[in-house]
Design brief:
Blueprint (H helix, E strand, L loop, with lengths): L1 E5 L2 E5 L16 E8 L1 H10 L13 E3 L3 H4 L12 E8 L3 E3 L18 E4 L14 E4 L5 E8 L3 H20 L9 H6 L18
Parallel strand pairs: 6-7
Antiparallel strand pairs: 1-2, 3-5, 4-8, 5-9, 7-8
Length: 206
Amino acid sequence: MASISFYGWEAHYDEDRHLQADQAPKSGRLYTMYHGTSVQIARLIITTGFRQSADGMLGPGVYVSRDQKKAERYPLRAQPTDRVVLKLSVDCGKVKRIDKDNHPLQKTWHNQGYDTAWVPPNCGMKAVPSGLEEDCVYDPKRIEVVDVALAPNTTILNEFKQLIAQNKKRSSNSVQADSRACSYCTAMLGVWTEYLRSPDQTRVQS
């Protein structure tokens, strides 16, 4: 982990944030993840936040992945012109590995004190025939949309990027920041905000 000190504060850059999809996420870390959805739902997520799904392979939560290819498959029955992949910053909290069908905590992991359930790639679960990594984050407030990884056209891409920038600006204006902070620290330190909940699609596993 790299660090740099300025004005009495110490900033850290965590290489673990960029673990490959087949590496187990560590509890209490921030990770870059992805979520695939429709254009309409992506717009709602960016402006008002994620909402916990009612159910799914891992129970209620928000389904995301560190593998962008996994996110690009959603929505499963949508045309490419209606698919968007959002890039996220996720505070995964305490993580539980779910790596087999009918795991005793497959849908009850949160009741046991876990914040995120992780399905590793190629673990053999029948509910994930693609073999791609997947995560379920119980609390939507642990997720921040930071960018757009895939959009059907430049018009939608630019619109969504502008919406994300507006959210970040509102968040920044609510916090007193040191304008003298170096470019390294500015790049590595993000401002977290709590988003309101809005509808998202219940995901079908693949």
